[in-house]
Design brief:
The chain is mainly alpha-helical and about 120 residues long. The longest helix is centred in the middle third of the chain and has 69 residues.
């Protein structure tokens, strides 16, 4: 005999049914958690992208404000025809490129930074 008399086929069916229900409940819970985790990942990615975009936007706005203020200051300083800011302009604005395709690779960029530092030290 495979099982004792205390277990009947009804008891076995009930236990299997109970385990099946438990397994279905656990599966539903895992699927719900998977959906929540997926949604949370999407929200985190959105927040990260928004943060980066916001930082770039703030930088661009700050640069535009600086250029506007600098151009007004330059006009005021250079009224008498002197070129007091020419060295500053050559140092600061020399590395600005008009097209994104003209941006040098990383190694060239490091060399330009080293050249900039050596110009500053002189």
């Amino acid at each position: 005999m495979l099982f004792d008399g205390a277990l009947s086929w009804n008891n076995i069916d009930q236990r299997i049914s109970g385990l099946d229900n438990l397994l279905n409940n656990k599966t539903q819970l895992i699927e719900a958690l998977d959906g929540k985790i997926s949604k949370l990942r999407t929200e985190c990615n959105f927040v990260a992208l928004y943060s980066r975009f916001h930082n770039v936007l703030e930088l661009r706005i700050s640069l535009c404000q600086f250029i506007d203020a600098y151009s007004k200051f330059e006009i005021e300083i250079n009224r008498d025809g002197s070129a007091l800011l020419s060295n500053f302009e050559a140092l600061v604005f020399s590395l600005i490129v008009a097209k994104e395709s003209d941006i040098p690779p990383l190694i060239d960029g490091v060399n330009q930074i080293a050249d900039l530092i050596s110009k500053i030290r002189k």
